[in-house]
Amino acid sequence: MRWASWPGSSSMAEGGCCIDSVTEDIIVQKGQLKDASFQSSVAFSRALLGLRRAFRKTRALLWADECVTPLTVSTTESCTTPSKRLMADHWPKSSDVSSVTSASAVSLPDDAVTLYRDVLLAMNDHGIPYAVAGAFALQKYTGIWRMTKDLDLFIKANDVPAALANLCQQGFRCETLDPVWLSKAHRGEYFVDLISGMSNATIVVDDSWMKRTQPAMIAGVKSQIISAEDLIASKLFVLRRERFDGADIAHIIYRTKGKIDWERILELAGGHWEVVLIVLMLFRYVYPAHTDYVPAPLWQDLLSRYMHAVQHPDRSAPFRGSLVDENIFSIDVKDWGLEDLQSEYRARQLQKAPGSSPSMGVIRRSGT
Question: Of the four listed, 86, 104, 222, 249, which is most buried by Cβ atoms within 10 Å?
Fold first, then answer.
């Protein structure tokens, strides 16, 4: 409780009122205060309560404003009228528990099936390599079906302009939200995400992703689905406050019984092998009876690397927090002067990004 005594009263023993810190009710303890002083005490408490509530609202608005950062990169005109998007439209997709099941067959609305079919046929007809990811890939490797309004396609950055041009010609509303990794094509309430890498630019889609795809039938179209290894790699850095894909990785390992090309995952992770160890430790914690789904030599390799790094710390190693979440760790960069690796990685990738992509927005959406 926070007591509000009116000036002139020496202590709460003389009376007054307080604000309950949990319920925020004003609790009266009149005591020996005169009516005028008592009324002033109540008025003061009400004013204090109003200030507290206003502060919380302001703080919430400031936090929301910080979560999505506008890019300052130049963009080219879209094939449709440019428009601004609300921040809520660009939050990472989150799991709806009620729509997740491993028992039901895939069931999609007719409009979604039509859009997905048109997109996949367009990609096939124009010979643009792609790898279907997202809900369809998760269902293939785990049996879990997660209801979705979008189709995730991993695609090389150099192929994004051609893909968008073809989809725009078919009446899709196209935009490049972030030239480092994300473009979209909308039609009605459904859309396709064209993903060319991770938002922090640690992993970039290349030809090897296309060579490792698996055949699949999606929306009645012969398609190519992402490999289990590349799907895991695409989720390694989704470790954010608002979205965490570690459970997806654990489910993939469990349902495939660890029959995975682990060298491929280490190859894609590169110097970020510790993130691989993080998700493997989570898997072992969740499924301790199936620790052997991860090969013993891999455990030994990663743990020996980790122990060496712990015993021989590199004092010149840069701060890596922004690679995990640039919002949560922004204070380290902005106020404490630590390195911003994400900005460095993204700047390098932006130099390689095609300059002819149709673009409508400059709003980044974190995660994949």
Answer: 249
